[in-house]
Automatic annotation (TrEMBL):
It is a multi-pass membrane protein. Signal peptide: none annotated. This is Probable purine permease. It comes from Elaeis guineensis var. tenera (Oil palm). Pfam families: PUNUT. Belongs to the purine permeases (TC 2.A.7.14) family. The lineage of its organism: Eukaryota, Viridiplantae, Streptophyta, Embryophyta, Tracheophyta.
Length: 374
């Protein structure tokens, strides 16, 4: 096997090539034995990180605003301020080269630029979390799958099928339905203008993050292994944190907010827990894009958003009326449509491969008979 587990976990030499399809270089590296088991263990770790991080970061971020936290830049900073935590897997991964030694000036500059875009995306997410219930926020963010399907078609040249288009239409209808039913869904103390600002910000965050995922898939095709994926993530999040820290500094000294109603200890525990949860979320997202694809990562995140809807209802008593139920049904319908389309596509590919094998066997048998006759 030309490419080994060392390259997935962070060692290895040589960059990953391009290539299309629904999988990146990492998912095609490992085909059997202990390497394959190690690959799936690494994949499982990233699935768990994505699940725990997505649910916890969403609920904790809203918890901050529910208990009278009001600083958007603080809520933005905590999303990326924990990037030093990613140094742990970087230094634990086996490698013959020092960390960050394989960065070219071009790759470093690209990571900084993408990090600044990530910082803007984080600000948009914070704005949505400040003014929208968790359930509404999560349903709007589910539209990112529609954006991802379109953008992966444009950037990675993956064809749009009928099931994909059906998914795009249904998720778009769900967002429109949520916008129409906004009057009954506004949290107490949130004006109509603030609600629509949160709605537009969340929709913008969904689109921007959907663009971020396929771009990162292209970037990860050029890295040497999982450890370098984490190194790329550290540089991007450091840039995002620098942008957010500038915003915090412009607003004055950062201290416990006067309106915060859970005391000083409760404030810093909330901040610390939110920092850790966001790092789990970003680590899981980056790992999923590298080990599978940007599309698969987006699908997993969309599925988890349905869990967030339930979490918002249970944790914060979000209203869940008829319009929101229909919007959730449309999201699940669109998600199911995509999964059915992918299942049928894979089934046809397997049948085609089986027919090709049969044809080859028959042709070889005919050649043997002809050879025997001579």
């Amino acid at each position: 096997m030309a490419t080994t587990l060392a390259q997935v976990e962070g060692g290895g030499s040589g960059g990953g090539g391009g290539g299309g399809g629904d999988q990146t270089q990492a998912s095609t590296m490992l085909r059997g034995g202990s390497d394959r088991r190690s690959y799936y263990r690494l994949l499982a770790v990233n699935y768990v990180a994505l699940f725990v991080g997505t649910l916890a970061s969403t609920l904790l971020s809203r918890f901050y605003f529910v208990h009278r936290g009001s600083k958007l830049w603080v809520a933005t900073l905590v999303q990326s301020a924990g990037f030093p935590l990613l140094l742990v897997p970087i230094y634990l991964a086996p490698s013959s080269s020092p960390p960050f030694s394989r960065f070219t000036p071009r790759l470093f500059a690209l990571c900084v630029f993408l990090g600044l875009l990530l910082g803007i995306n984080n600000l948009l997410i914070s704005c949505g979390q400040a003014y929208l219930p968790v359930s509404t926020n999560s349903l709007i963010l589910s539209s990112q799958l529609a954006f991802i399907l379109v953008l992966t078609s444009l950037l990675l040249r993956r064809p749009l099928t009928f099931s994909n288009l059906n998914c795009v239409v249904l998720l778009t209808l769900a967002s429109i339905l949520l916008a129409i039913g906004s009057n009954s869904d506004r949290p107490a103390g949130v004006s109509r203008g603030q609600f629509f600002l949160g709605f537009a910000s969340t929709l913008g965050a969904a689109g921007l993050f959907a663009a971020y995922l396929p771009i990162m898939e292209l970037v990860y095709r050029k890295v040497d292994g999982y450890r370098m994926v984490m190194e790329v993530q550290v540089v991007m999040e450091a840039a995002a944190a620098a942008l957010a820290a500038t915003g915090v500094a412009a607003g004055g000294r950062w201290s416990v907010e006067k309106r915060w109603d859970l005391g000083k200890a409760g404030y810093w525990v909330t901040i610390a827990a939110t920092v850790v949860s966001w790092q789990l979320c970003f680590m899981g997202t980056a790992g999923m894009v590298f080990l599978t694809s940007s599309l698969n990562s987006g699908i997993c995140m969309t599925a988890l958003l349905a869990v967030n809807v339930v979490g918002g209802v249970v944790a914060f008593g979000d209203m869940f009326g008829g319009q929101k139920a229909v919007a959730l049904a449309l999201c699940l319908w669109g998600f199911s449509s995509y999964l059915c389309g992918e299942y049928n596509k894979k089934k046809k590919e397997e049948e085609s491969e089986e027919r090709e094998v049969v044809v080859v066997v028959v042709e070889e048998g005919d050649k043997e008979r002809l050879g025997g006759g001579e």
